[in-house]
Amino acid sequence: MEKVLSAAEQETALPRAIWHRDQTDEAQLKKLLEDHHRWTGSKRARDLLDNWNTARAKFVKVFPNEYKRALGELNAAKAAKPEATAKAKKAVAAK
Prior knowledge:
Layout lengths: L1 E2 L3 H7 L11 H16 L2 H8 L1 H5 L3 E2 L3 H30 L1
């Protein structure tokens, strides 16, 4: 388990390739709390949002190693795909 980093901390500390849904953990967590508050009127969610910097520090992130590895591999494959497409286009143009 890891602490939930602020968006600025995550942007400097972690490669974007292993971000879930290409969003910071803080943004995802805050959105979940905002939605929960909106849908349920939860006073606890409102308290957490009103004291966000303190509350965020109390959350932990559960991020399985295999999922982290899979995200990295998927993003590496996406990055390699444009290169492969460009090579294929050059090969077709050369014929």
